[in-house]
Amino acid sequence: MSKYSAQKPPLIIHYCGSEVCSPKHQFGPAVRKHYLLHYINSGQGWFSLGDKSYHMQAGWGFLICPNTMVTYLADETDPWEYSWVGFSGQCCEDILENIGLSPSLPVYTTIDPEKSAAYMRQILESKYLNAGREFAIAGAFLSFLSTVKGNIRRPEDSELNDTAALATDYIFRNYSYDISVDDVAHAACVSRATLYRVFKECFGVSVQQYLMDVRISTAAEMLSTTEYSINEIVYSCGFSNYQYFIRLFQKKKGISPSQYRNHFRIRNFGYDSCPDRE
């Protein structure tokens, strides 16, 4: 008897999609219960995992593993367009290990970018099929993975990247508390002025703006994926004033938190789900 037969299927594709991001479009920090693979079709951006930040470009991609907190940010002048596939299954670890991807090695390139892009288009087109959709998507996804070249290690960090990594790691771990720019600068072992320069160069925004973006993105994620009340989400994301949060959220997202929850809530995974579109 197959070792998979009495358990969940070897490979389950939950959803897939693509997006042309606006400059400085940020997602996260967020944690998921399944794997989520991104492929960059064009443009550039940053992918941050723990204390590591990677500068990404077209033809590259990154893997988000279950229960791993990440954030990613489109470049200010050359924002990326990416596609994604959310998946899980009993054989995922084996598949990913064979192509050199793991929680500690989440970044990849592809052997043939043109072929990779074609397979990704096939994945996205297959979700509209009526007959054989699941097999078509899974087959195209496995074909895409056959072009992946993992084991990509981050280049030796510059002082700039070190500072950005320390600061963003502190923010990701403490955004739910009442932290200040001084706290972030202290954690990164630099002055406020240096920290401001680093954030403007790496992310195109001030430290305070980055912190607010993290909190709003986290709130949006919780609105779409949890049953917590808006009041609970407000305080768990580091806001101390309910009305201020409501005004800021509406300014950032263009709709109220209640409207956002009704529109974007993900109750069940489907091929048309777009969890990154925020």
Q: Which residue ranges are poorly predicted, with pLDDT under 50 across at least 5 consecutive positions?
A: 1-5, 267-278
Please list the strands of the largest sheet in the order they lie side by side.
1-8-3-6-9-10
Rounded mean pLDDT is 83
Strand content: 15-25%
CATH class of the largest domain: Mainly Beta
What integer value in Å does the Rg equal? 19 Å
How many beta-strand runs? 10
Number of helices: 10
What is the name of the CATH architecture of the largest domain?
Sandwich
For the biggest sheet, the summary is: 6 strands, antiparallel
Task: Give the helices and strands as they follow along the chain.
Answer: EEEEEEEEHEHHEHHHHHHH
Total individual domains: 2
CATH topology of the largest domain: Jelly Rolls
> Which structural category do the helix and sheet elements fall into?
alpha+beta
The CATH homologous superfamily of the largest domain is termed Regulatory protein AraC
Shape: globular
Describe the 3D structure:
The chain has 278 residues and is of the alpha+beta class. It has two domains: 12-149, Jelly Rolls; 159-264, Arc Repressor Mutant, subunit A (Orthogonal Bundle), CATH 1.10.10.60. The protein is built from ten helices and ten strands. It has a six-stranded antiparallel beta sheet, with helices on one face. A four-stranded antiparallel beta sheet has the order 2-7-4-5. Residues 1-5 and 267-278 have low confidence and may be disordered.
